[in-house]
Specification:
304 residues, 3 domains, alpha+beta, 19% helix, 5 helices, six-stranded mixed sheet, five-stranded antiparallel sheet, Immunoglobulin-like
């Protein structure tokens, strides 16, 4: 039988009572893993009442995600004359609801399992949690949104990334990079369009210098307070060299945490274009020198 998960499973609880249920009401009773008892509601008589078969379909919210563990179920029969009789208990185990891979992760659980040499699903939940934590950690450490996404100057949540002070220069340094595309650029409310092949560095359009996180505009970004508005897409896209490096970083970090109880020792390895020596966790800030090297490469540099 497939695993049952708290918070998401469909289940029919069925009992054969061995009683003629004509004129009876039957309720589905339960006991949670913490010992709390309660009643779901009336059970449905299946077929003829004389057959004595009843069932209850677990509804959404009946088994909260936080209440994983062993549940007990039984039918409580109330006869026409007021007598009450319980059936034998049925035990069902509901597992902790599995995490899903975060949308901002550079790799999947299956790729981590390949790296760690794991098979089966025993560690899937813990690996997904570690993947979520590692993905958040990478963005926190680099102080960047690394995966490609849209930044909209009309969205109040994106103002810090999209509104800039003009300083009269011909270049604008964006807060997220690399710049993949620009959907809107305005200066003092006037729209600026992209330069064409014939006026690439002329005064009529802007030029994206993708990896320098820079936009060039010959006429200049005139002085003002938040007078430059930019809607753009920035970040690394799947399949790029940078994406593969960040995937490797994520896998290594999850592996370091997963294997934290093991002594890694010294070992020379070659991965992608890197050759490095893995040392004990205490010898490097992030548990692995290659992880430290990649993280440092993508960090936002703050100039005093």
């Amino acid at each position: 039988m497939a695993k049952l998960y708290a918070g998401q499973s469909y289940l029919r609880i069925q009992f054969s009572t061995g009683q003629d249920l004509t004129g009876c009401t039957v309720a589905c009773k339960y006991r949670k893993p913490d010992g709390t008892e309660g009643t779901f509601g009336a059970m449905t008589i299946s077929g003829l009442a004389t057959a004595g078969v009843v069932y209850y379909d677990i509804a959404a919210g009946d088994i909260p995600a936080a209440d994983y563990g062993e549940w007990l179920f039984w039918a409580s029969i109330t006869f026409a004359d007021g007598r009450i009789a319980p059936t034998e208990e049925v035990r069902k185990y509901f597992f902790d609801e599995p995490f899903t891979t975060p949308t901002w992760a550079f790799c999947s659980v299956s790729e981590i399992k390949d790296y760690l040499g794991l098979t089966g699903t025993t560690y899937d939940t813990v690996l997904t949690r570690l993947l979520t934590a590692a993905s958040g950690f990478i963005e926190t450490e680099t102080k960047r949104r690394l995966m490609a996404q849209d930044w909209d100057a009309t969205d109040s949540n994106h103002i810090p990334e999209c509104w800039y002070d003009g300083d009269g220069s011909q270049t604008l340094i964006t807060r997220q990079w690399p710049i993949n595309s620009i959907s809107l650029l305005t200066i003092n409310g006037e729209t600026v369009t992209a330069a064409t092949a014939t006026d690439y560095y002329g005064s009529t359009g802007y030029v994206i210098r993708k990896y320098r996180r820079m936009i060039y505009y010959a006429s200049g970004f005139s002085d003002g307070i938040q007078n430059v508005r930019l809607s753009y897409n920035a970040g690394y896209v799947a399949g790029s060299r940078e994406w593969e490096e960040l995937k490797l970083l994520t896998i290594i970090l999850v592996g370091v945490i997963f294997n934290a109880r093991k002594h890694l020792g010294f070992k020379s390895e070659t991965m992608m274009n890197y050759r490095y020596t893995r040392q004990d966790l205490k010898d490097t800030r992030y548990g692995d020198p290659l992880a430290e090297s990649i993280l440092n490469k993508y960090k936002r540099r703050v100039v005093a």
